């Protein structure tokens, strides 16, 4: 099993989760983070650290977030690994909770 970064991370991209990951399974794109499903050890440390509630356990992934399971796996193979916390985008709070952000995902 793995944890999955969902839609609310898009354009919010807080990196609090990265700091607590014991296996460094987060990967960073321009405006989104993903979790590599083959590296995640299901420790659950990242989920409570996300200030925008964008991380889900695979078995608790909401129906409207199912596409993100595959998207995390795909992008983790393309994007660079991130192991240290960074500043969130200046407008991150403005994007928290906004719907339909998938079309804004930058690859």
UniProtKB/TrEMBL annotation:
Entry-linked SUPFAM superfamilies: 4Fe-4S ferredoxins
Pfam families, per database record: DUF3470, Fer4
Domain 4Fe-4S ferredoxin-type residue range list: 1-30, 31-60
Region (Disordered): 87-107
Alphabetic keyword roster: 3Fe-4S, 4Fe-4S, Electron transport, Iron, Iron-sulfur, Metal-binding, Repeat, Transport
Keyword 4Fe-4S annotated: yes
Cofactor(s) in the UniProt record: [4Fe-4S] cluster; [3Fe-4S] cluster
PANTHER family attached to this UniProt entry: FERREDOXIN, OXIDOREDUCTASE
Function statement: Ferredoxins are iron-sulfur proteins that transfer electrons in a wide variety of metabolic reactions.
Protein's name in the database: Ferredoxin
């Amino acid at each position: 099993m793995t944890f999955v970064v969902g839609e609310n991370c898009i354009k919010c991209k807080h990196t609090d989760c990265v700091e607590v990951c014991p296996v460094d399974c987060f990967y960073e794109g321009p405006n989104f983070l993903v979790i590599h499903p083959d590296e995640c050890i299901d420790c659950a440390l990242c989920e409570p650290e996300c200030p925008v509630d964008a991380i889900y356990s695979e078995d608790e992934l909401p129906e409207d977030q199912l596409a993100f399971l595959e998207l995390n796996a795909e992008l983790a193979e393309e994007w660079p690994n991130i192991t240290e916390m960074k500043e969130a985008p200046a407008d991150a709070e403005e994007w928290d909770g906004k719907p339909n952000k998938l079309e804004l995902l930058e690859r």
